[in-house]
Model the fold of this input.
Amino acid sequence: MKSDFKIMSKLAVHGGPPVRQEKIYYGRQWVDDNDVKAVSEVLGSTLITCGPKVEELEKALAELVKAKYAVAVSNGTAALHCACMAAGIGPGDEVITTPLTFAASANCILYCGARPVFADVDPETYNIDPKSIEAHITEKTKAVVVVDFTGQAVKIREIRELCDKHKLFLIEDAAHAIGTTYDGKPVGSLADLTCFSFHPVKTVTAGEGGAITTNNEEYYKKLVLVHTHGITHEEEQMEELPHEGPWYYEQIFLGYNYRMTDFQAALLLSQLKKLKYFKKRRQEIVKQYNDAFKEVPEILVQKEIPESDTCRHLYIIKLDLEKLACTRRQFFDAMSAEGIQCQVHYVPVYWFPYYQKLGFERGLCPNAEEIYKGIMSIPLYPRMTDKDVEDVIFAVKKILLYYHK
Done:
């Protein structure tokens, strides 16, 4: 570790020497030669979309998460929309979700003409609180969309019991959580419908891309239709029989074009081979951060439930601003000047102007709003070296020391 003298030196934002010359970001994909080769082989083949690689990927995903079915789609938002449609969510329905998430977790409810209802989060885990879910259930509630925030599994057991008791669909937004297990069972096999994202900053990537997994054949058949325009080539689903010939197909309801390409599927298949290593390395970095910050009074770290063996997508520190002579923005800018580019995940969804126009007001979820005021995501991805991790820790402590009251 660098000397205490340098820790006490002038911050880079004030003209001092930065911790790093080359900037490091909060998240980054890791694409290697094997990934490139896998994509190139598909690009040189006959079918680059609507080909065999997507089906191969779907089988691999289903096997990975121990679900019966998987449907690959164009992105994580499409996965959420498809899941809501498969659950039959529509006008007049209410769907409970968390505000501490990317907007897609709530937007997918609006896409179906239903109304999102925001339950508060646990102040220590930052995941949706089952007690708050229960408090928001009404006769209009159709489903619950839970989010495995930062990759940590929600309290599935308690939430599953609530959903069963009130006959609600359980949709799990696992955009952060591929590789995570709950009580030894993979995320992807626990909810009625589980949605994944494969954006470049996620644990594994398809460039863009998403998927839905389920153990229910009826939901699976709906998902297949929903993500391909509502069009079927299956005779058992057709209304006009006998049909004219092998070219014939029918649109049997209004669906969407949410297909994934074969070269994206090839990239993701290659990435999945590295998932175990990616998880291991992410957990190593998380441990280094936890060890470094556990005795730092100006920082609170996200607590984990013992049931979750987490493949962490994000590492969030929460600044205790009462102990610091700076704002979060000043801390954020100071980190950037030191060569560490952070991010904030997330602005409470109902704070956005669009949701305000729908009648949502600030103050709905006090825990989520209090958490948001001080959180910041610091770099976490498997390609980080131990030196990278040390630099991040050093920069955090350097700035904390400077702004300590």
